[in-house]
Specification:
The structure is a homotetramer.
Chain A: E1 5-6, E2 11-16, E3 22-28, H1 38-48, E4 65-67, E5 71-73, E6 78-80, E7 85-90, H2 112-119, H3 135-149, E8 154-162, E9 165-166, H4 190-202, E10 209-216, H5 230-239, E11 244-249, H6 260-263, E12 267-269, E13 275-277, E14 285-286, E15 289-290, E16 295-301, E17 311-314, E18 320-323, H7 334-360
Antiparallel strand pairs in A: 1-2, 2-3, 3-7, 4-7, 5-6, 8-9, 8-10, 10-16, 11-16, 12-13, 14-15, 17-18
Helix pairs in contact in A: 1-3, 1-7, 3-7, 5-7
């Protein structure tokens, strides 16, 4: 069981390796009659696309997404038909020669070792299937999911911690994210962060980061009470992104230090009878089901494994080696992870919407 | 889609409410010919059982698990037959009168609100389906999963942070966990923690905590590379436990502050050719697949929502109320969460074992 | 993967062996707020129950179904809560001594051989998991499914062929089915069929049969176009019933002899604009999706494998044997298959309803 | 839930419309290290390809399958890597103008009506997603499945009934199938069948047929005992093929006329201890699990719905119409169904192999 599909009713199947001819995905279960064209996908892909600044890999990919099925124009403009939507993205700048040595030696911190151990073979070119390139398919699927959710649901993410540098919770401003090359959730930190990340980059090093997520407009009632709690589905979706090693919902690890009195999100009634919460430690989810408050989560990314400093490793032939990874890499893989976090949230929520509708009507 | 089943090949379906006649689970997909009796389940259930100390709810449940199917003795002792194993646990101490008020008012921080909103009805008695009582079924299933994994895999968890009090990573000692009523992963902290938690308990308050998990003996190669990464499956399993709001694998959120050089778990070869790692920031998982190192994770629990201090809330009739929750509760729900964390890890790993065997042979 | 769960959103998990303490099922995904009590289940179970006439096994089971979870009375009568519904049926008349020899020798035509070969062990008592007793769980689940479907959908089945004796299509009368001990879909054939089946029974023999199914009230649009065509789901559900070896939808195998002109179910418009079909060769399903016409299917049952005439077989110890099966058996297992066919159709359709609602709204 | 994926561990997701730019599939869960190239797929696609004789549609498609991922040559030739295998087939001869009228009027017996009713829109060009063109993806996936099964398993199918003309069971010769343009399982019937089908074709009519399937080399023990019986999975797979309306396993509907004595496949031991069966009424499956005998099934196809004779129908605008379908069609869609039946059997069995290995080891 290889699990290249995710989602229950809104289902995404992806395929493709970093240096193969193309990558892509099939989105199945999308409701019909939703207006959708390639122009709806491209802006999201452009946000994630490599080569956009000195802070991301210099690989030059156009990331042009073509829709090969599932959309039809019967006179009133292209709409989804309820059949699977195949999305195809050509790989145009795959320089496999850069990766000669990693065919043999395992990058510490990378999936080279485990793919080879599990499968006995791996497409080592550019990381093959484990490359961040795969996330383009997620972003394309996420763009479809956003159309399913409609304009009422707003999904935003941004970098709130870059290595040791943090944005205070009260200073987080998601509107700044796509206006700076660091995807930082605050315009103010950008100059200092740029200087910091330039240092990391020039040293051939890399650094971890934390991405915050906020989703507004999710009505109360989505999600499932136990083994597919909305927290659990979000956590799994985020943890499935390459380099992610931690996820917290609402107060998250901070809740471990709270008393019951502090943690309780007290409720009062608004003028029109809606529930007003005094706080949102729950991150918008209680018992696995949305409360109507904003969904909030934080996602920890480890640093890129490909660095210039030699690291001790072993080879698949059973010898020791010291490996430095040349080639084109992101000094902080979390940056381009921001649109991916958003896309995965969109897919989880589109799926939750459909499942809610199924059981509750 | 209600998702009361988890797992792909080793599948667990649970049922039952806190104050109904019984709870239970059906374990499907278990390999045949594994020796199994009720005596294999009971010790694990006894660890989680309420009423064991002043630090857990005073509800008195025997938590006797009966196996109703899937095991047969054909002369050589009872073994699994490959058919579904139904496990049945009677509820014997359900005092529904304690819960009169919460039929009407929603406990802040609890699932009362969201169940009622989603379903339009809920079994409010003792929290119904959202009660921690449900975790007994998980523990029973986990006991079966341990038999599938065999003695080579050792799963251990323990409380490493109780509110503001932490056990230093180097002081964590899982062997102490079941010898103290706090499930603390260190004997040394117990006196101080007991005093602290007594204060919380007597104040009718509650507190959050962090549970650490360590699994040794998992061979390299288990797990799936993308949407069901072993990290993602563990995260989802842990997040599905009531009150959990954060999960991290290996260095977790700490990895956000590491450089690529620091994060890389360097490798050397041992005398017999096996890989020796210099560190384990990956928590035993790279690219979603086990490395052969110990799996390590940390799980954040929020404080119990049921507290004596009145909290502002609303009722399902649309009025405001101040609610204090009487009845029997755990001052720190994470304590009895320790065997549940272990059980969920066991189920995830038994499932990973079967899936690995399917694809790789 | 052991597959003791069926359905996608309306999901049924069953457990239990013929001579174990009990059997049962867990119905998950049921919408909330549907009135449901044990009295809604029992009439359907009583139809299937053994011991009712000389034409079915003389095992005396009360088949009393208890609901252990998922239903709650909040003042307006018991309703489903959206949580899993556990149904429990005790086995009260299990005489395992009757089955001594089949622990050793495989009944030809029975699952004894294949269970033992696959699993290396089997609960041979009364056929264990492969016993027709398991179908009681299906019938209980089907009763829940009928409540989900509501009164607009009518599901009826009946025996239309008993060995060589057939009821002409135009003579089929489903209203007769539960008024005769043969579950025959025609009152007229009953005397002759009783005489025939008495002969089979007294000879210790058995005979196959065909059960017809008709479902009215399914609106146009349910089902999925390709790999879960409504035809395919019905076929799988029927084929999953013990002893079934053939399924056809609408004209079925007869369609192989039709020309395109004959097969086309021509359409005209009724007075209020609804579509009127001139025929129903499609059995109410085109492209896997319901047309609004009645769903029609036919299901072939093989004869009961347990017969008194000695048959050549082998034993699990690797010797040859001549086996005659004593004990209590149905001379025609298809008879009690009638409520099971109905129940499986109900489950498939409740599942189709939920999935339709999910994607289409 | 749209169900464009089938299989549990060997999973196939397909996409594409008849007159879109391309069709294709993603095969997930394939074990690694299996030699695989496009040359392994093409011969099977060529068998199904249109335009090959006057008895199939005159649409000219090259059906060239390209593998875009999941296969890697690390020096010893291309092998599967355990990652998803994306297969892409361009549509080169899509003449949408032929289909103008069916955008408006529903072909009786075709999925036009139900797609439009369910989704409110459909890609009507060439039948869109419901076109037999989709089966090319199945055949490509089936070619991969055959590699998973290996040479020990032989899957063969052929037409055994063409309208009223039947091949006697004892005359069935699968080796003749791909040597005649009718895919007939007997060389002798070909001249008479050609003359018959020429008549049908020239009349602009169509006819139904029955395809028989035989699989040898499946070891005893594959399959699951209840809801995913091997019979049920084969039945669902076959019923999911466009135009199929009936499936029977082994004696099938004939078993309804057998006595228990006749139906029992008696067993004796061979010289080396293997089980020898005296007959195969079970079609190689007992209790849902393979016996080691050949798997045998029969599949009924209805006639092609697109015919020249005008049929009464209605339009999506709510008017009545008389429709004759011009364009290019198969006079007997079952013919090209033969490689599809084989492919679906291959996929079901590859999936059964992996699942068996998972649970049993």
């Amino acid at each position: 069981m290889s699990h290249n599909t995710f989602g229950h009713l809104f289902r995404v199947t992806t395929w493709g390796e970093s240096h193969g001819p193309a990558i892509g995905c099939v989105v199945d279960g999308c409701p019909p009659l939703i207006p959708l064209t390639e122009a709806d996908l491209q802006p999201w892909l452009d946000l994630r696309k490599p080569g956009g600044s000195r802070f991301v890999t210099q690989r030059q990919e156009t990331d042009v997404a073509r829709i090969l099925s599932g959309v039809f124009d019967d006179g009133a403009g292209p709409v989804t038909t309820g059949t699977p939507i195949a999305i195809h993205i050509d790989n145009v700048d795959a320089r496999s020669k850069d990766y000669g040595e990693i065919a043999r030696a395992y990058r510490p911190g990378h999936a080279d070792l485990t793919y080879q151990t599990k499968y006995g073979v791996r497409d080592h070119r550019g990381g093959g299937r484990s490359s961040a390139r795969e996330t383009a398919s997620r972003v394309a699927a996420g763009a479809v999911a956003r159309r399913v959710l409609g304009d009422g649901v707003t999904i935003r993410a941004g970098v709130v911690q870059l290595g040791p540098h943090r944005i205070a919770p009260e200073a987080v401003d998601f509107s700044a994210v796509y206006d700076n090359p660091l995807f930082a959730a605050s315009a103010e930190v950008v100059p200092a962060w740029e200087e910091y990340l330039d240092g990391v980059r020039k040293a051939g090093s890399s650094i971890g980061a934390v991405v915050a997520l906020e989703v507004t407009g999710v009505p109360a009632g989505w999600g499932s009470p136990l083994y597919a709690k909305l927290d659990a589905e979000l956590a799994a979706a985020m943890m499935s992104i390459n380099a992610v090693k931690g996820v917290e919902i609402g107060a998250g690890f901070g809740a471990a230090e709270l008393s019951g009195e502090e943690n309780a999100d007290e409720m009062r009634l608004g003028e029109d009878g809606q529930i007003l919460f005094g706080s949102n430690n729950a991150g918008g989810i209680l018992g696995g089901i949305s409360t109507g408050q904003p969904l909030t989560a934080r996602v920890a990314f480890k640093p890129t494994s490909s660095i210039l400093t030699p690291r001790q490793t072993v080879t698949r032939d059973g010898t020791e080696a010291d490996l430095r990874t040349k080639g084109r890499h992101d000094p902080c893989v979390a940056l381009r992870g921001v649109p991916v976090v958003e896309a995965m949230a969109a897919c989880v929520l589109a799926d939750a919407l459909l499942r809610h509708r199924a059981q509750i009507g």
